[in-house]
């Protein structure tokens, strides 16, 4: 089979290679991958910034969708032709996370989905909603489940206010899911064009942070008493403003580290205390979370938003993610 593999770190060093076709072991199925989507984690993995001690060579990417083509012994859950997606962490089936459950992440601990065929555990797969294409379904395992859980932990109700940072995969899924729950959604971006596209998906209010850096003040003006939930993807560079924009008793779903080392502003601990802020790290979710989310997608016929490229352009697509010019998810199709 053909696969992209990290033989040495760096986008330009990503290698398009031939590998032996995988054989299914006990409890495993072989999935022919039709589409893969990228996450920021994949970029960091390829560059050697996520895990500099990553065992190489490694096939990257956690997210992919395809069809079952072969089965190993002692399996019953799937049949040939079933449309499936792999779960992000192959050992996290249900319940709260544990150190053992969060091992086995695709594209990191084990080989990922940027290949024509993958061997996955029968419990490491979920059926994909009938109304979605393989390309749309490939966007779900990481970004969508992460956004779904971010809204779940704060129990967003109709009339609540959610603030999204940027217009990447997690943020756009959070916008879509929040609108399904009847919430008001505010968004910040460095691009008027991206804000316009977000308005088309239901964004209630947007601000260009390049023109108005004090977006925390703007959020307070828009709400009066602050935001109920902030989808925090920036990290240390945005967290101080997130705390100032937060409603008393509100929740920050800490998801990303896109802002790197940040501006050097000290974390306002007094704001955490005064606002009785709740902060929760979100690292994707379980198979059960994925199944519950898919039921909601099927009931509402919600469709992911993204851009599609040939998988032979993997280096260029990674570079596009690095420059931050995309909107929603970056998807690659295997022809």
Structure write-up:
This protein has 10 helices and 15 strands. By secondary structure, the protein is an alpha/beta fold. α3 (140-154) crosses α4 and α6 packs parallel to α7.
Brief characterization of the structure:
With 335 residues, this protein is of the alpha/beta class.
Give descriptors for this structure.
seven-stranded mixed beta sheet; six-stranded parallel beta sheet
Write the layout of secondary structure elements.
Layout: E1 2-6, E2 14-18, E3 28-38, H1 40-47, E4 63-71, E5 83-86, E6 117-121, E7 125-127, H2 134-137, H3 140-154, E8 161-165, H4 169-180, E9 184-189, H5 192-200, E10 205-208, H6 215-223, E11 227-232, H7 239-245, E12 246-254, H8 269-274, E13 278-281, H9 287-300, E14 306-310, H10 314-323, E15 329-333
Parallel strand pairs: 8-9, 8-11, 9-10, 11-12, 12-13, 14-15
Antiparallel strand pairs: 1-2, 3-4, 3-6, 3-15, 4-5, 5-7
Main beta sheet: 7 strands, mixed
What's the total helix number?
Answer: 10
Spans where pLDDT lies below 50 across 5 or more residues: none
Strand content: 25-35%
Distance between the termini: 13 Å
Radius of gyration: 20 Å
Judging from the principal axes of the Cα atoms, what is the shape?
A: globular
Going by helix content, strand content and strand pairing, the class is alpha/beta
Task: Give the integer mean of the pLDDT values.
Answer: 95
Total beta-strand segments: 15
Order of helices and strands: EEEHEEEEHHEHEHEHEHEHEHEHE
Q: Determine the fraction of residues in helical runs and give it as a percent range.
A: 25-40%
């Amino acid at each position: 089979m053909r696969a992209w593999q990290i033989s040495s770190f760096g986008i330009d060093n990503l290698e398009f290679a031939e590998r032996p076709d995988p054989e299914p072991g006990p409890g495993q199925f072989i999935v022919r991958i039709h589409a893969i989507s990228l996450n920021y984690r994949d970029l960091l993995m390829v560059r050697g910034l996520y895990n500099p001690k990553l065992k190489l060579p490694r096939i990257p990417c956690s997210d992919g969708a395809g069809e079952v083509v072969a089965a190993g012994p002692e399996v019953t859950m799937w049949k040939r032709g079933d449309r499936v997606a792999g779960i992000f962490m192959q050992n996290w089936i249900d319940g709260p996370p544990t150190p053992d459950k969060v091992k086995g992440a695709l594209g990191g601990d084990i080989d990922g989905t940027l290949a024509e065929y993958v061997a996955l555990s029968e419990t490491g797969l979920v059926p994909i909603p009938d109304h979605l294409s393989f390309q749309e379904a490939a966007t779900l395992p990481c970004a969508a489940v992460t956004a779904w859980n971010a809204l779940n932990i704060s129990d967003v109700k109709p009339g609540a206010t959610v603030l999204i940072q940027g217009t990447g995969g997690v943020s756009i899924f959070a916008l879509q899911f929040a609108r399904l729950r009847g919430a008001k959604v505010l968004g910040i971006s460095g691009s008027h064009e991206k804000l316009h596209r977000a308005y088309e998906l239901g964004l209630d209010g947007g601000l260009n942070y390049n023109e108005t850096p004090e977006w925390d003040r703007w959020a307070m003006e828009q709400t009066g008493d602050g935001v109920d939930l902030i989808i925090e993807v920036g990290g240390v560079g945005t967290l101080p403003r997130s705390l100032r924009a937060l409603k008393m008793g509100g929740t920050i779903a800490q998801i990303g580290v896109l802002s790197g080392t940040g501006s050097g502003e000290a974390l306002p601990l007094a704001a955490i205390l005064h606002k009785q802020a709740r902060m929760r790290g979100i690292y994707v979710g379980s198979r059960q979370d994925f199944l519950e989310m898919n039921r909601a997608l099927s009931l509402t016929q919600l469709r992911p938003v993204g851009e599609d490229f040939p998988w032979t352009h993997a280096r260029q697509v990674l570079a596009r993610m690095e420059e931050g010019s995309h909107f929603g998810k970056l998807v690659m199709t295997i022809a």
